[in-house]
Amino acid sequence: METIIRPSSDLRNHYSEISKQCHEERSPVIITVNGRGDTAVLGLQDYYQMKSELELLRTLAEAEEDSANGRTAPIQNTFDDIRKSLLERKSNEV
């Protein structure tokens, strides 16, 4: 994925071109102010994907930490808790 660097004036003067680059090429565009990186622009789909991946990585890191510190339980307990929660939710809907 190639990163494209554009001056801030392009954001105002060539927005549709920048948007097209973000969506079609699925690459971020770095906007500079006075020659220095200031803002990253990326397509909404890529933003949501990055956000989801980051959340997954955080969850996996927490799980790994729990496992390393002995904070685990038998999987059957987890399934029982999920089943109980679903049954309670179903009975509250009726």
Can you lay out the helices and strands and say which pair or pack?
Layout: E1 4-7, H1 8-13, H2 15-24, E2 29-33, E3 36-41, H3 44-68, H4 75-93
Parallel strand pairs: 1-2
Antiparallel strand pairs: 2-3
Would you write up a description of this structure?
This protein is of the alpha+beta class and 94 residues long. The protein folds into two domains: 4-42, YefM-like domain (YefM-like fold, 3-Layer(aba) Sandwich), CATH 3.40.1620.10; 46-93, no CATH class. It has four helices and three strands, in the order E-H-H-E-E-H-H. It is elongated and about 55 Å long.
How many domain units?
Answer: 2
What is the share of helical residues?
A: 55-70%
Query: What's the pLDDT, averaged over the residues?
Result: 93
Largest sheet: 3 strands, mixed
Residue share in β-strands: 15-25%
Structural class: alpha+beta
Low-confidence residue ranges: none
How far apart are the first and last residues' alpha carbons, in Å?
51 Å
Number of H/I helices = 4
Q: Give the C-alpha Rg.
A: 22 Å
Secondary-structure element string: EHHEEHH
Shape: elongated
Q: Give the strand line-up of the largest sheet.
A: 1-2-3
Number of strands: 3
